[in-house]
Design brief:
Elements lengths: L10 H15 L3 H14 L4 H13 L3 H14 L4 H13 L3 H14 L4 H13 L3 H15 L3 H11 L3 H14 L4 H13 L3 H14 L4 H13 L3 H14 L4 H13 L3 H14 L4 H13 L3 H14 L4 H9 L7 H11 L6 H17 L3 H17 L5 H14 L2 H7 L9 E6 L5 H9 L4 E3 L5 H8 L21 H14 L9 E4 L8 H7 L4 E6 L2 H10 L12 H21 L4 E5 H6 L1 H12 L45 H6 L7 H8 L1
Parallel strand pairs: 1-3, 1-4, 2-3, 4-5
């Protein structure tokens, strides 16, 4: 949700809406409804007006009309927690408790600052003898009640995506209360959401210094340090937490998580097992243990851990999804039926609901129930898309800016420069395009370390973007034009030093962050000798595979067939541009070619990298290493064609994808299949 969805630009609208708002506050609902109806004639999609109209109609017991207003609102603002709260109030007043509870849950997930929803959930949990859930709700209620009114308001609008307004209000409060740690944490969250991680880190570091015994505050500090890849500091901070609160198993579990981020999966498993000895019913710890075991290639142990998690908590969607995400696990009929029952629960959280839908999609596909599988894919992606701020237009704008700025003249003017290193190998492109396979092949070579997806290039790009509190494009990539030779060299050297912690002893290493394709111009400026490999896959296979995958974070363009297709087309357009302005700098590797001629493609890749051929690269599936991506189990198997044409059983559902792709990239028979 964006600020502009709430802006009131016309003076008349502002006056009328203020009058209507006052009428609602004073319980003059008839008068309010008349005023709001007048506003809506000229502004039918105005968010605040629709919300107040629903509230007024509900108090007048015009429930059908109230629902109509909320449904119109949710079309324009599907992630607005207050709208779900209002929908819950409507269902409550109509006597449908189960629907009301479901919507209160949705409201709290989207906007955790809604006291009214938490109060309703607390009463429901108490009445149904769910003490853990009731305790959590009461904790949230007490926290929110303890806040100054202005901070509660800031929290609410922050969770509605009104970042500009939230920032202004927060800064005003901090001018008068400069050491208020909760306000500082709110401002850091705003900075975090806008991508200003340095600011977020600074604010949280300051807040922790003012209140060193606040565990929640320090946990937020750990989260931003992790995002910035400052793993040594994250470990330092979780150690402080564990020392201060030795009996807090949550902090111990966080320590295990941070150890895993540093590649210490064996150590993390030992720590998680210690936690389970103290609390054998901690389902989330079993899930974390499963993740560590999966990363190490211990599939059977991972399965046992995930199963243990869901046996403790049947609605723990992440455990079922994690089983499906192994790509090799087959659900039993009882597991499928259990998931079907869980996903229909009205009180299930959106997070768990999304997990169940994606898990069911995998399970239904395995039994060739393709229509049901697609239904679950649609529902799961809709949940994620409704919570996303992704915009096709904005992304196209960002990518077009790369073409406009980083043209042939740009590289001629800037000339040579940057840090002279041949260490990094960037494997980029789109998710699910075969980059993990290429990385596994290269990591099997004695001269190359596999370091997975590194966020460092994205962080450098963000640092060059400039101040931009409202989320506009800012100065990047134009800001690259003013980089001095020394700055370019420093950025390149810092990249090498900051990523060294992920390497072992090999002279070269991989970075397989797919979205780095957006920043090839930057990579070339700061490390002109870096090797770049474009991992590419047939559009229908690639886009549908993205649509099928629930990613841990980011990749929001995958939560719709249209969005995935347009992103693929934009990616091709930008890569064609890079080929033109940086000739012979990028090696394109088609996934289909690797599958058809593994040895030939391996030799071609190694030749491009200027390293000798090693047979280990052919037997890549035997390489013992940690793999964290969705393809972790697939790259531990010999090369196969299982992933090719997986979209075909779903062809009748894929017209939105077909319409968004460049037809010249597709086989004519595939176009006919979708259109038939």
């Amino acid at each position: 949700m964006n600020d502009d969805k709430f802006n009131i630009n016309e003076d008349t609208l502002s006056v009328d809406l203020n009058e209507a708002t006052l009428a609602v506050k004073e319980n003059r609902f008839d008068q309010a409804s008349k005023l709001l109806d007048i506003i809506l004639k000229d502004n039918p999609d105005h968010i605040d007006t629709l919300y107040l109209a629903s509230v007024s109609s509900r108090y007048l017991k015009k429930f059908d009309k109230s629902k109509e207003f909320i449904q119109r609102l949710l079309i324009n603002a599907p992630d607005m927690g207050r709208a779900y709260q209002e929908l819950a109030h409507i269902n409550r007043d109509m006597g449908d408790e189960q629907k009301a509870i479901s919507h209160y849950r949705q409201a709290c997930e989207l906007n955790p600052a809604l006291i009214s929803s938490w109060n309703s959930l607390y009463k429901y949990f108490i009445d149904n003898n769910n003490k853990p859930a009731a305790d959590h709700a009461l904790e949230q209620i007490n926290k929110l009640k303890s806040l100054p009114g202005i901070l509660l308001y800031i929290e609410q609008i922050l969770n509605e995506g009104r970042l500009g307004l939230a920032e202004n209000k927060c800064r005003e409060f901090l001018k008068k209360n400069p050491t208020h740690t909760y306000a500082m944490s709110l401002l850091s969250e705003i900075a975090n959401r806008l991508g200003y991680f340095d600011d977020a880190e600074f604010l949280l570091e300051k807040a922790v210094s003012f209140k060193p015994d606040d565990g929640d505050l320090r946990m937020k500090y750990v989260a931003i340090l992790r995002k910035k890849q400052k793993f040594a500091k994250t470990i330092e901070q979780v150690n402080i937490l564990c020392d201060k609160f030795p009996d807090n198993l949550t902090y111990q579990a966080q320590k295990a998580s941070e150890i895993m981020q540093n590649g210490g999966h064996e150590e993390a498993i030992d720590l998680l097992e210690d936690i389970l000895k103290k609390n054998p019913y901690n389902f989330s710890t079993f899930t974390s243990k499963g993740h560590a075991e999966k990363t190490l290639g211990r599939s059977e142990q991972a399965i046992q851990s995930y199963q243990a998690a869901y046996k403790i908590k049947q609605d723990h969607g992440e455990a079922f999804f994690s089983l499906s995400n192994l790509k090799t696990y087959s659900f039993s009929d009882s597991e499928l039926n259990s998931m079907r029952n869980q996903v229909e629960r009205l009180d299930l959280s959106l997070r768990d609901k999304a997990y169940f839908h994606f898990a069911l999609a995998q399970g239904c596909e395995a039994i060739e129930s393709y229509d049901e599988a697609f239904h679950h894919l649609e529902m799961g992606n809709k949940i994620k898309n409704d919570q996303s701020l992704y915009s096709i237009e904005r992304m196209n704008q960002e990518l077009q800016a790369q073409e406009d700025i980083c043209n042939e003249d740009f590289f001629k003017r800037l000339g040579d420069g940057g840090y002279e290193t041949k260490d990094p190998i960037f494997i980029l492109g789109l998710p699910r395009a075969g980059s993990t396979l290429i990385e596994q092949i290269l990591a099997s070579h004695s001269m190359i370390d596999g370091t997975l997806e590194l966020p460092n290039i994205l962080s450098i790009a963000q640092s060059l973007r400039g101040d931009d509190i409202y989320g506009k494009l800012g100065n990047y990539p134009k800001s690259m034009e003013s980089l001095s030779l020394k700055q370019r060299e420093t950025y390149g050297r810092d990249f090498i030093e900051d990523t060294r912690m992920h390497r072992k002893e090999a002279p070269m290493f991989t970075d397989k962050m797919p979205n780095n394709f957006r920043h090839i111009g930057l990579i070339n400026l700061i490390m002109p000798n870096a090797k770049i490999i474009d991992a590419r896959r047939y559009p229908l296979d690639c886009c549908f595979s993205m649509f099928k995958q629930l990613f841990a974070q980011g990749q929001e363009f995958t939560y719709g067939l249209k969005e995935a297709g347009y992103y693929y087309k934009s990616y091709i357009k930008l890569m064609n541009h890079w080929d033109k302005v940086l000739p012979n700098k990028i090696l394109r590797v088609n996934n289909e070619d690797v599958i058809e001629d593994l040895e030939g493609q391996v030799k071609r890749i190694l030749s491009f990298l200027e390293v000798p051929f090693e047979h280990n690269c052919i037997s890549f599936h035997e390489t013992d290493r940690s793999v964290r991506t969705a393809s972790s189990e697939q790259v531990r198997q010999p090369i196969n064609k299982k992933g090719m044409g997986r979209w075909k059983p779903y062809a009748k559902h894929l017209k939105p994808l077909l319409e968004s792709l460049d037809k010249d990239l597709l086989h004519p028979e595939d176009i006919s299949l979708i259109n038939s």
